[in-house]
Amino acid sequence: MVIGCSGGADSVALVRALHHLRHQPSSDPPTGFLTLAHFNHATRGEESDHDETFVRALADQLELPFVGQRSDQTDLRDEESLRKMRLRFLKETAEQQGARYVAVAHSSDDNVETVLHHLLRGTGPTGLAGIRPYRSLGQDAVLIRPLLSVSRDCIRTALRSIEQSWCEDSSNTSRDYRRNWIRHELIPLIQSKYPDATEAISRAAVTQRDWVRSIESMAEDWRTQHVDVGDAVVIHCDVETDAPVIITAMQQLWSIQAWPMQSMSQTHWQRIYQFVSATQTGVCMLPGAIRMESADGCVVLKCGG
């Protein structure tokens, strides 16, 4: 298993917890391996380097292998680009190490922030389900989030109880990032009127996730029957299937094709549904230079056209 560790409280707690579990008394010796992986974005100067040094020292203390990488694109600042770089690094590290699992430390607070962020962007059911507890990462690895049901406060309390230090990322206090505004401004405002709001949002996300799983299963069956992938993607029009199934199938297709998802809004997904259900025809350009055209009872998608 590869553990993504930034040096922050959440990821340090994840490292300590998994290391502890692996070394529990047992009649059998521990199997498998744990590797700490740290990606240095180098966006905070000496602070970024200090975080890397801290994680490397933690790996040495626990006698765990360490893999680190420093970004050569220090001018990047937007959250999505930074996230993609980290995931690419973790995927490559898992491949190099032969790891089946990659563990990252998202908390229940992260999940609430994600749900609110998606809601404000006008997301659909998948976005309102929040962060997935696990998902595929490439062909052979699975990304898991073991702390997703644990609160940020609980994590810090646990670390203090074992006198384990961690790093504080100064960029987490900046209001330049939308997620930080949600964390420091919006959520406290909501809690001033609804004290149990974060727990309620977490419960709603879990319920939504169950519904999404059912829709995803139907969408996968629909995609198998209606979508042909070649030089272009050909979708056979369907006037009977409901929008949630078709839109979810299209989101699955985007993921498989590695087309850009971040710029796709609910309006774009609805437009695709209108083409597939034959309620709209013509030509439409989608984010990522993807051309959509209706032709002879089909919808043709081509990237770069």
UniProtKB/TrEMBL annotation:
Supply the EC number(s).
6.3.4.19
Q: Which GO terms describe its cellular component?
A: cytoplasm
**Record keyword ATP-binding present:** yes
Question: Where in or outside the cell is it found?
Answer: Cytoplasm
Q: Which UniProt keywords apply?
A: ATP-binding, Cytoplasm, Ligase, Nucleotide-binding, tRNA processing
Report the Pfam families cross-referenced here.
Answer: ATP_bind_3 (PF01171)
Enumerate the spans annotated as tRNA(Ile)-lysidine/2-thiocytidine synthase N-terminal domain: 2-185
Q: Does the keyword Isomerase apply?
A: no
Which top-level enzyme class is recorded in the Swiss-Prot or TrEMBL entry?
Answer: ligase
Q: Which GO terms describe its molecular function?
A: ATP binding; tRNA(Ile)-lysidine synthase activity
UniProt record, GO biological process: tRNA modification
User: Where ATP is bound, by residue?
Assistant: 6-11
> In which domain of life is the source organism classified?
Bacteria
Identify the Gene3D superfamilies for this entry: HUPs (3.40.50.620)
What family classification does the UniProt entry report for this protein? Belongs to the tRNA(Ile)-lysidine synthase family.
Biological function: Ligates lysine onto the cytidine present at position 34 of the AUA codon-specific tRNA(Ile) that contains the anticodon CAU, in an ATP-dependent manner. Cytidine is converted to lysidine, thus changing the amino acid specificity of the tRNA from methionine to isoleucine.
User: What the record says about its domains?
Assistant: The N-terminal region contains the highly conserved SGGXDS motif, predicted to be a P-loop motif involved in ATP binding.
Record's PANTHER family? TRNA(ILE)-LYSIDINE SYNTHASE-RELATED
What protein name is recorded for this chain?
tRNA(Ile)-lysidine synthase
Naturally occurring in which organism (per UniProt): Rhodopirellula maiorica SM1
Which gene produces this protein?
tilS
